[in-house]
Amino acid sequence: MENLILKKLGVEPANSEAFQILISALNNILPYAKSLKSLETWNAPILPNIKLLTTEELEFIESKLSKKSIIPVSECQTMVQRLVPQRKKSAAYYTINAGVNFMAAMVSNYLAEYGKKKLVVADPFFGSGRTLTAALNKIDVKKIKKVWGIEQWPLPALVGYAAILQILNGERDLIEIVVGDTFKTFEKFALPKADIILTNPPFTRWKYLKKNYRDNLLNFMERLGYGQYITRKEVSLQMVSMFLSDYMLKKGGLLISVLPISTFYTIYGKGYKSFIKNNYKVLAMLESKSRSSFSHDSGFKEIILVAIKEKPEKGLLTVFAEVDDDFKKIADRIMGKNKVFVDLFNIRRLPRFLDINWLSLFGKKDLRDFLVELFNQGLEEGTLEYWDKALGDRSIVRGVEMYGPEFFFIPNKYWKISNQNGAYVKIKNIKDKTNLNLDKKFLVKTLRKPSLYDRVIELDVESYMVSIPPRDMEDLPTDWQKYIQWGADSDTAAPAIKSYGKLWYSHVHEQMRTKEPFGHIFIPDKVDLGFKRRGVFANYSNRKLAASKNFYIIKNKDEKIIKLLLGWFNSTIFISSLMLLGRRISNNWTRLLKNDYMELPVINVDNIEDIEHINESVDNILAKALPPFWEQINRDYRYNLDLSIVKSLKIENPEKKVKKMYKILNNYLNK
Ligand SMILES: C[S@@+](CC[C@H](N)C(=O)[O-])C[C@H]1O[C@@H](n2cnc3c(N)ncnc32)[C@H](O)[C@@H]1O
């Protein structure tokens, strides 16, 4: 009977846990109603469907409304997210206590300072109403004009409704919780614009949304007047959600939202970032002290954004801080009695190298201050220049992407190189001992993966990439034909065959032709900042080589520039900027993408006077087997390299600067 009732009411999934939650929500609502049956006339999630139930089914529900099986509604609010069908796709990861408590404390301070009369409080991605209930507990019911929310799943929506009804002492005319897709339904209901929006929008990946749905979202944004901030290529669902929230927020209104930090360092957030910089007083950005996210069961690195929809005054400073159980103290710091701040930034005046990644504004104050001063001095002297201006945006390229490394790299798991001369590479199959004589015309020396070259800067590359021009099999040398046939038969080439069809063996050649991924300097796409093994950041080869997509290749040909850049990338200054400005992938792993490099200062060859000095210190370590990076600090060869660079940048007190940098880094290592 339980499942049948749930189905009739439109609740998915129909199971006993869902039924228990339903009963608990109804139990919270009934004190404010005449009878169970009377709820069918209410404007609330699920309740109108009560008219579909038989007398027997109604009696069954009533029999369950005994106190024993009732779960407190606040517990239901957390429990229900685990029952949501397609939880990941829905992004049903509700805000944790630290987040909702902070929101509530912030709302109190906002009301104290802005003293609004009657309030509309809303969450366009309502879930079970956790963001709203925490805050509503702090607001006098008499001050509420309306509370509204939109949620696509009925059961959490009902639970949230029940919780709010109780907080508002049964004043149901003040509540409107709509069940449906926010983007499709919000215009249909005459929802009033809000004074306060507290939310945690879905971060579902754009590519997982259906094309049709995506197109509708883009048209919708255009219609609401946000088209100029969104281009088809640079969009994310959370950004669309935030523009919708902006549309629904009154002038002077308060917005507090959980957002993935990637909104503030990827190209997908660029439009929104510039939008809030110019149209909001961004009061604070908070990260969580004890965990990476502010949502239950979520692995994303998230922040909480606090902003008021008002043109920011010129010198407005934004608080960047950590929050946890000290939410009240932090809320007071942001607005209220205790305005003492730790890290404050004018986000409209950030230097380019900080603006690319707002994650760099949290913590690490001494390292950031050090680098900002050094970069600013270098940029003023002209010894540093932004990459795009100094080297151009074609100077760096990602390596070759290939489908099926055990075919496209030689040697590989199945074939070793047994001999080679100027024109041929002889390979031997490890299992059946077959020999093939491969014409070198179709082989390109290529770096395979960064861990192979992490000890010595100068490269000794033994691997080749298979790069066959788009010709029919019959037109290729016989041994190449045999190798290709082996690739197809052994399944090592299966990914390429699946993606490229008949001329699958040529997809690498096409990239070699169009990208020209050749150069003398190679930098890894991502690194583990723990540097447990790695002693080198950038590798060097005096012969031009190619690289796989695990590397970026610096394409410059000028010998003078090459050595200088090699020194720069292996210097402690660069490693420090990677620590500060890299896009964190996990606790330790970090990366910079091409777009980031463009926004970073780089040593400016045109204005460096003592190039010889740097060359000398680079030559000193070129062929050396280097210990893990952190063990090199304070060794002569590293000090000489760093000092020669800092001197050439015309930084004041170079010796002192280098020592200070080591001290800062040592502090991090010892933490
Ligand atoms: C991250 S949860 C946040 C829930 C709640 N605001 C909180 O903070 O606890 C996002 C919520 O949005 C809902 N949601 C996602 N996409 C939606 C859409 N297009 N329309 C309506 N709700 C949606 C999900 O079901 C989920 O409950």
Any overview of this molecule?
- By secondary structure, the protein is of the alpha+beta class.
- Helices cover 39% and strands 18% of the residues.
- The chain has a nine-stranded mixed β-sheet with strand order 3-2-1-4-5-7-6-8-9, with helices on both faces. A seven-stranded mixed β-sheet has the order 11-21-18-20-16-17-12.
- The radius of gyration is 30 Å and the shape is globular.
- The site of S-adenosylmethionine (SAM) has 24 residues, from α7, β2 and α9.
Short description:
The chain is an alpha+beta fold and 671 residues long. The protein has 27 helices and 24 strands.
Topology (SSEs and partners):
Blueprint: H1 2-9, H2 16-29, H3 55-64, H4 73-79, H5 87-90, H6 97-114, E1 119-123, H7 130-136, E2 144-151, H8 154-167, E3 175-179, H9 182-185, E4 194-199, H10 211-224, H11 237-248, E5 249-260, H12 270-279, E6 281-288, E7 302-308, E8 318-323, H13 327-334, E9 343-345, H14 352-355, H15 365-381, E10 384-386, H16 387-390, E11 396-398, H17 405-408, E12 409-410, E13 415-420, E14 424-429, E15 435-439, E16 443-447, E17 464-466, H18 478-490, H19 494-500, H20 507-515, E18 518-524, E19 526-528, E20 539-547, E21 551-554, H21 559-570, H22 572-581, E22 583-584, E23 589-591, H23 594-598, E24 601-603, H24 611-622, H25 629-632, H26 636-648, H27 654-670
Parallel strand pairs: 1-2, 1-4, 2-3, 4-5, 6-8, 16-20
Antiparallel strand pairs: 5-7, 6-7, 8-9, 10-24, 11-21, 12-17, 13-14, 14-15, 16-17, 18-20, 18-21, 19-23, 22-23
Helix pairs in contact: 2-8, 4-8, 6-7, 6-13, 7-8, 10-11, 21-24, 24-26, 26-27
Bound molecules: S-adenosylmethionine.
